[in-house]
Amino acid sequence: MSWKAERPSTTRRFRRSDRSRGSGPGGLKVTAAGAVVGLIVAIPGAAGAAIAAPAAPRSTAPTTAAAPDIPVANVKAHLGQLQSIATANGGNRAHGRPGYRASLDYIKGKLDAAGFTTTVQQFTTSGTTGYNLIADWPGGDPNQILMTGAHLDSVSAGPGINDNGSGSAAVLENALAVARAAAKPAKHLRFGWWGAEELGMRGSQYYVSKLTATERAKFSGYLNFDMVGSPNPGYFVYDDDRTIEGVFKDYYASVNIPTEIETEGDGRSDHAPFKNAGIAVGGLFSGADYTKTAAQAQKWGGTAGQPFDRCYHRSCDTSSNINDTALDRNSDAIAHAVWTLGVGSTTPPGGTVFENTDDVQIPDAGAAVTSSVTVSGRTGNAPSALQVGVDIKHTYRGDLAIDLVGPSGRAYRLKNSSGSDSAANVITTYTVDASAETANGTWQLRVQDLGPQDTGYIDSWKLTF
Which GO terms label this protein's molecular function in UniProt (predicted)? Predict the structure, then answer.
């Protein structure tokens, strides 16, 4: 992250400052990919709850492709290579130094071998030639570009393994995951590694400045990852675009990790030139030289009163300056965003969808409401990976607690309420182990608004068998 850009003098406020942070009642056991694996909770009395009529089944329909798990060992292997490059080139990978170009060549070689079309863009700053690396995956709508990027340079004082080898390696492994999946994305996927960020985002500024107005209009979003493996980590989400913010918060809610709005890096990384050009931006950050508070240490672990990264912009930012858990979680969150926002929809082979598209209003801080789907024509029990697609429109989704209720009356918690989740809408797919349920019967989506001031409605929901 660049120290050249001005730090924010104040932090951004939450939309409702009177909200306390924390999750709603009840535990949630999930896999790393966000699959709910069988939490059963009691159903409060249904008296007075609004109920939508059951819906008939329909034929196979699109469902969102699941993001792959990103092997953290692979990400760490890339970091090991970047460390070796720095060690062999004067201890750093800074702009204008041989370690930077060697880092770019390493990443380019991986992408070329995987089938990407790569371009090295040259620019000049501080009297020295700099380089950006751009990689395009074939296919996808050329008029809808989702770009994912990270700066590749370090400061001259050290190898820059967290800042920003971590972001660069995580983005690289996600790009390689796209290739391994032979993805046929809905949107065109582009990846970028920026030079001279530590001099004031010079590489990304140059790239954006060369885009025509027509080219800029094709971008559906830019995702930025700068420092995602801090040794005393926090989990911070950019709040610049509510849709992108919501995608990241969905992922972290699915693995029961609380997040906070990112403020330390405002305007100090490569998302800023894109945002200034009118392109929607988002991203993740695990913290730099700000101090972790006691409250943050309580919910995330780590050491209160110490920086998130004590080696920020120092020679000790080596391969030992990485928290593997944060690196793993953030790498998987990147995959979730790329697949959700860019790869898009696939048709499940042989899947049968049962859907209810009737709107159900959700009263503010009121009683729970339900929407029903009747499943018929199945044999045996429901699958262990039942797909529950949810589309709820709501102006403050942190208010909402959501359950799937099976034909037996058992409830499977999909989402807890959270006072710190200020994004709008819940539009996602949950994976539920419903194998204890008989497939046929009436299933319900049960939603309750537990906070004041905001309302919304169930737009639609579906079960895919």
Answer: aminopeptidase activity; metal ion binding; metalloexopeptidase activity; serine-type endopeptidase activity
Which 3 state secondary structure label does DSSP give 389?
strand
Within 10 angstroms of residue 359's Cβ, the number of other Cβ atoms is 12
Domains and CATH numbers, the chain: 35-62+347-464 (2.60.120.260), 72-344 (3.40.630.10)
Q: Are 465 and 437 in contact (CB under 8 A)?
A: no
Which residues, including other chains, have CB under 8 Å from residue 8's CB and lie 6 or more apart?
A: 263, 264, 266, 267
Query: What is the b/e burial string over 14-23, where b = at least 16 CB atoms within 10 angstroms of the residue's CB?
Result: bbeeebeeeb
Q: Report how far residue 145's alpha carbon sits from residue 166's, in angstroms, rounded to the nearest whole number.
A: 24
Separation CA 25–CA 359 (nearest Å): 26
Catalytic residue (one of 173, 197, 245, 437): 197
Q: How far apart are CA 337 and CA 81, in angstroms?
A: 26
164: preceding bond cis by omega (within 30 degrees): yes
Q: Is 197 one of the annotated active-site residues of the chain? A: yes
Reading the chain (465 residues) residue by residue, the pLDDT tens digits are 765 444 443 333 233 333 333 333 223 223 333 333 333 333 333 334 454 455 444 433 334 568 999 999 999 999 999 999 999 999 999 999 999 999 999 999 999 999 999 999 999 999 999 999 999 999 999 999 999 999 999 999 999 999 999 999 999 999 999 999 999 999 999 999 999 999 999 999 999 999 999 999 999 999 999 999 999 999 999 999 988 999 999 999 989 999 999 988 777 899 999 999 999 999 999 999 999 999 999 999 999 999 999 999 999 999 999 999 999 999 999 999 999 999 974 334 346 889 999 999 999 999 999 999 999 988 889 988 888 989 999 999 999 999 999 999 999 999 999 888 888 899 888 888 898 999 999 999 999 999 999 999 999 999 988
Q: How would DSSP label each residue in 135-171?
A: EE-S-SEEEEEEEEEEE--B-TTS--IIIIIIHHHHH
3-state DSSP call for residue 122?
Answer: strand
Work out the burial of residue 45: count CB atoms within 10 Å of its CB; fewer than 13 is exposed, 13-18 middle, 19 or more buried. Answer: exposed
